[in-house]
C-alpha cells in the first residue's frame, strides 16, 4: 500500500468524523486536521531538528529533522546482510541522510543505542576488506548505502536470527510537506495517524446551541424574559 499524503489522510479523518458525529465534523476545519496530522507524525517518528554543518562548507538544508524508524528487517544478502530503507531520506553530503543505525539482537531486547553501526562510503567496504589489520572493523559492524538498500559488512542473520535494526533518517520538517507530497511514514503507521487524530476531535465537546451574533443576551436574565 502506498504511503499517503497529508491531504488524503485529512480526507479520511474528515470522512470518519462526518460518519460518526456530523456536528464535530462541521466545527473542524481541514487546516486544523492537517496541523494535527503533522503533530502526530512528529510524535510517532520522535523527530528532532538537525542543524549540523560540516567544516568544509557542507550545509544541511533548513527544516531538516531526524526521524526514528524501528523494527526494520535484516535479511541475508550475498554472504552479508541487508536492510531496505523504510523511506527515502533527504540526500545529504557523505550519505548523512542515513544518520545512524542501531541493532536489536533479540526479539524482547532493546536497541543498542551505544553500539551503532559504522557508516562507510560506497566502495570503502572493499577497500577495508583488503587491509588485514582492519578488515573486520575491529569486531564492529559497518554498512554502505546503495540507493534504497543498506548492506552490512557481516551476515547478521547468521549470528542473530531475530535481529532487527532502528534507523535515524534525515527528512523534511513535517510542516514543510505540501498537501500532495508523500509523507515520510511507514504504511503501517498511517492508521496510527488517522486513529489518533480522529480520537482528538471526536472526543471534543460540541456546542448544543447556535448563537445568533445579531442578538445580544442579557446576563442573568432567563431567555424567555429577555427583551426582544
Draw up the topology in text:
Blueprint: H1 6-20, H2 22-26, H3 30-45, E1 48-49, E2 64-73, E3 75-77, E4 80-84, E5 98-104, E6 118-120, H4 124-129, E7 142-146, E8 149-152, H5 156-159, E9 164-172, H6 190-202
Parallel strand pairs: 6-7
Antiparallel strand pairs: 1-2, 2-9, 3-4, 4-8, 5-9, 7-8
Helix pairs in contact: 1-3, 1-6, 3-6
Structure explained in plain terms:
With 228 residues, the protein is α+β, with helices and mostly antiparallel strands. The protein has two domains: 1-47 and 187-205, no CATH class; 67-172, no CATH class. It is built from six helices and nine strands; from the N terminus they run H-H-H-E-E-E-E-E-E-H-E-E-H-E-H. The strands form two sheets. The chain has a five-stranded mixed beta sheet with strand order 3-4-8-7-6. A four-stranded antiparallel beta sheet has the order 1-2-9-5, covered by helices on one side. A hairpin with a 2-residue loop joins strand 3 and strand 4. Helix 1 crosses helix 3 and helix 3 crosses helix 6. The longest helix has 16 residues, at 30-45.
Amino acid at each position: 500500500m502506498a504511503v499517503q499524503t497529508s491531504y488524503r489522510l485529512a480526507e479520511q479523518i474528515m470522512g470518519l468524523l462526518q460518519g460518526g458525529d456530523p456536528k464535530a465534523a462541521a466545527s473542524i476545519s481541514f487546516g486544523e486536521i492537517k496541523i494535527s496530522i503533522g503533530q502526530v507524525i512528529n510524535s510517532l517518528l520522535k523527530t528532532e531538528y538537525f542543524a549540523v554543518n560540516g567544516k568544509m562548507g557542507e550545509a544541511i538544508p533548513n527544516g531538516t529533522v531526524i526521524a526514528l524508524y524501528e523494527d526494520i528487517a535484516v535479511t541475508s544478502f550475498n554472504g552479508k546482510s541487508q536492510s531496505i530503507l523504510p523511506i527515502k531520506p533527504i540526500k545529504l553530503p557523505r550519505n548523512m541522510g542515513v544518520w545512524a543505525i542501531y541493532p536489536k539482537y533479540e526479539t524482547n531486547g532493546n536497541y543498542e543505542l551505544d553500539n551503532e553501526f559504522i557508516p562507510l562510503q560506497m566502495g570503502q567496504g572493499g577497500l577495508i576488506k583488503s587491509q588485514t589489520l582492519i578488515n573486520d572493523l575491529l569486531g564492529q559492524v559497518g554498512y554502505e548505502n546503495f540507493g534504497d538498500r543498506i548492506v552490512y559488512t557481516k551476515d547478521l542473520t547468521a549470528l542473530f536470527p531475530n535481529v532487527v535494526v532502528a534507523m535515524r533518517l534525515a527528512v523534511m520538517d513535517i510542516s514543510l510537506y505540501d498537501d500532495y507530497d508523500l509523507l515520510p511514514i511507514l504504511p503501517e503507521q498511517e492508521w496510527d495517524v488517522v486513529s489518533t487524530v480522529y480520537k482528538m476531535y471526536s472526543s471534543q465537546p460540541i456546542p448544543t446551541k447556535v448563537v445568533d451574533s445579531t442578538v445580544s443576551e442579557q446576563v442573568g436574565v432567563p431567555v424567555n424574559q429577555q427583551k426582544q
